[in-house]
Amino acid sequence: MLQILSAEGRRFRNTVIWSLQGWVAAWASEKTLRQWTLVQAISVSLACWLDIEPAERAVIIGLGFVLLAAELMNTGIETAVDYISLESHPLARKAKDCGSAAVALSAIAGGAAWLVVLIG
Q: What is the average per-residue pLDDT within 37-61?
């Protein structure tokens, strides 16, 4: 039993390390990640400062993190496509455009949540 717990602890530690490495790499190269992180910081601050329901606060904060996750996935897609080839190809463009659309939809969802909360 102790071996199983130890192995799971190592896996969890590695997952945390790899996730942090991904964040640091994306942070260093992606201006949009830094911009969305600033938006999320402002959004979390406002959500905690305003007198809104806890469920509303949770949705707003959660959607902000979904947006950051979408931006990280978009960065991964773009990086993988560029690694394979820097030549223009319709499938490469489609992959990049779909990643960008995921970020846009996540941003729209967060904005819509704020509108619903503020307007009622």
A: 97
Task: Please state the pTM of the whole predicted model.
Answer: 0.90
Query: Which helix (DSSP H) or strand (DSSP E) does residue 103 occupy?
Result: helix 90-119
Pair 47, 61: CB distance under 8 Å: yes
Q: Please tell me which residue in 56, 71, 78, 87 is annotated as part of the active site.
A: 71
- Say if residues 107 and 68 touch (Cβ distance below 8 Å): no
DSSP 30: -
Residue 41: what residue type? A
51-110 pLDDT tens trace: 999 999 999 999 999 999 999 999 999 999 999 998 999 999 999 999 999 999 999 999
| Length, in residues, of the chain | 120
Strands (E), 1-120: none
Number of Cβ within 10 Å of residue 28's Cβ equals: 9
Active site residue 71: yes
Using CB atoms within 10 Å of the CB of residue 61, give its burial: 0 to 12 exposed, 13 to 18 middle, 19+ buried.
middle
